[in-house]
Amino acid sequence: MSTPPPQRSPTTQPYLLPSPPQKKSRVGVVLGGVGGVMALLIVAWAAVMVSEVGTDGDFPEARYRLALPKTLLGGEYKREQDFSDSPQESFEQHAESALGGLDVQAAVAIYTPADRGGQLNVSGVYGRFKDADDARDTMLKDAADPDGVSVARAPKDFRPSGSDVTVTCQVVAKEDLNMRVIMPMCAWNDGNTGALIGEIDPAVSSGDARDVDLASLAERTLRIRAELRQPIS
């Protein structure tokens, strides 16, 4: 009689990316690990200690949500995987505690460039957030928390001309297989929607974090926000 396969633990992380094919270079393997970290951020927020959320009157009215279109930035990126319907059962409860929100839902996806290598990770949430600045900072802090990941360039706030929201950007680094790769990321939270946008670009990954144009990335993040953020009808 054959032994039945082991049952999957209910705490198994649902967002881990598959391992890169063996034919990829070591850089590709490390980049895949960084992508896995990004896609796991929603789960990482669940590990934050529960804090006092507050009363319903402390939160803004829900006017906007996040959508995940098939393409972004005029077709520059195409959606490869959408994890929004796969959160753990207690996701909303944990995310609300970690980010200080109510009625929180996930919007998590991986996009790939249409004409080059790399990937764009969207780790987003929407609902009602009491302290938008604190929620944004928490997302960035947790992005550099996993083992092997560190901040290579400290978070910096940007408020591009015409913007109604602050975008904070940083650069994280991951060391593995005796290699070090970097990935810039930006985050926003406007009281209804929030997301961490991280791009894995082979042309940037082996460079110096000081050379990354964070101001340009902040403007790019706002363009992505405009495409993801939709009014609640």
Structural features, described:
It is a single chain. Residues 5-34 and 37-53 have low confidence and may be disordered. The chain starts with 25 loop residues before the first helix and ends with a strand. The chain is globular and about 50 Å long. It has helices at 26-39, 41-45, 91-99, 132-143, 202-205, 214-228; strands spanning 64-66, 71-72, 77-82, 101-113, 119-129, 149-158, 167-176, 179-189, 193-200, 229-231. The protein is an alpha+beta fold and 233 residues long. Helices cover 25% and strands 33% of the residues. The longest helix has 15 residues, at 214-228. It has an 8-stranded antiparallel sheet with strand order 2-3-4-5-9-8-7-6, with helices on both faces. A two-stranded antiparallel ribbon has the order 1-10.
